[in-house]
Amino acid sequence: MNLKTVDQSGQPLQNTTILLKNGDTLSSKSTTGGWANWTEIVNGTVFQVNATWLFSDLYVNDTFSIAVNGDTSLNLKCRVYNFTFNGAVRHIGTDRNVTSASWSNSRFAFDFAASDANSTIVFDTGQVPMYILNMSYNIATSWNSSSGVFKGQVQNSTNALTICFDNWGDFYVVRVDDKLKSLSWTGQKLTITIDRQAAGTIALHCGSRGIPESTSGLTVASYSTTTKIFQATYAASDTVEIDWGSNPQGPQAPPPPVVSFSALTEALGKLKPGDIETFKITVTFSSSSFTINSLTFTGAARSWCKTITSLPVTFVRADPSALEGTGELEVSVTIQGNTGSGNHTGTVVIYGVDPFGTLHETTLSLSFMVETSLPMSSWDFDWGAVDMNTTAAIITIAALVIVAMAVFVKKKSR
Q: Residue 184 is part of which domain span?
């Protein structure tokens, strides 16, 4: 039996596990390219089928029954939606029944069926959201900076959810203990409406804005110059205001910080036709993380080089106090058998995106020194490198030498 997990658009869904249950027997397999395969199944066996994505407790389709009669292939359509963000295909999934889902203007909106239990929302955007409407959450516990994955709980009474990636530079909501209803800017004043059930905490990553000049509706406020996080308690009001003072740039946050991005490839030694080698490209970036979306090769590298590292890949600056972070891309090069001697050149263009949504690209020159044969002394001849025509010529010459020597010896004996 062959089962395949697909997203809502019908594309193969990676990082899934398919579970089959027959009575008390449970069999689970991680998929490859979305596929999982079972053999030697007795005809008529009935299985309960389900699938998880990224996490073992995130069930992304409803359990159903299947009776196996002969070879069986089936697609499992999961509650996982793909969308393009920062030039890369990303996914968002949930274990809650969805009535509608849409991606527009850097926002993903869900409408859910009524539910009497909490449910999970997961997305792999590689970048923290600016804010999430109709949900309480805490980036400190829900966000995995290494994998670029968010996992949070949707509250019982939530029937609509909007995940927002508005470009507000390095500003974002870190924590809110009740549901966010709305956020809006007037000049440099941010107004936040909260579905307040009781006193709670709100935390904001202020980034390049720094500490606010004044607030309204908040108490017990604090600001860390190290993390750039402003945290305060809301108690008596559903609406709070945070003001950074007058700024001629208007209602949006300052432009995203300038992120530097560069790359360097390691040197390759001399190569021969038929060689297959690997080399690394080291990328350097000044932001907290950086995503490489694709590599494009030109010149000789176009047909010789292939990216081994699975893309897109997000690199995270390991030391937050460091000025730069690094990551490595692995590439293979195959020198074709009919390649002539000499220096063969090409380029690789690396495309990436920083956490603020700015696209970057950089170009590296590649050089491959190919030698079809290596110099040897007359006493160190490499017969393995000799072709048939050369061999025949050598044999002919040797035969003529032998004949000449025989004639010389014969004349001398007279």
A: 167-255
Residue 243 has pLDDT above 70, yes or no: yes
- Encode pLDDT of 58-93 as tens digits: 999 888 999 988 888 999 999 999 999 888 899 999
Paired tokens of 161: 């959810």
Residues 339 and 244 both lie in one domain: no
Give the whole-angstrom CA distance, residue 24 versus residue 404: 91
Q: Concatenated DSSP letters for 97-138? A: -EEEEEEETTEEEEEE---SS-EEEEE--SS--SEEET--EE
Q: Where residue 348 sits, what CATH number does that domain have?
A: 2.60.40.10
Last residue of a domain, one of 236, 255, 274: 255
Q: What is the pLDDT of residues 167-217, one digit of tens each?
A: 888 899 999 999 999 999 888 899 999 998 888 999 999 988 889 999 999
Full 3-state SS string of 31-78: CECCEEECCCCCCCCEEEEEEEECCCCCECCCCEEEECCCCCEEEEEC
Do residues 304 and 230 both lie within one domain?
no
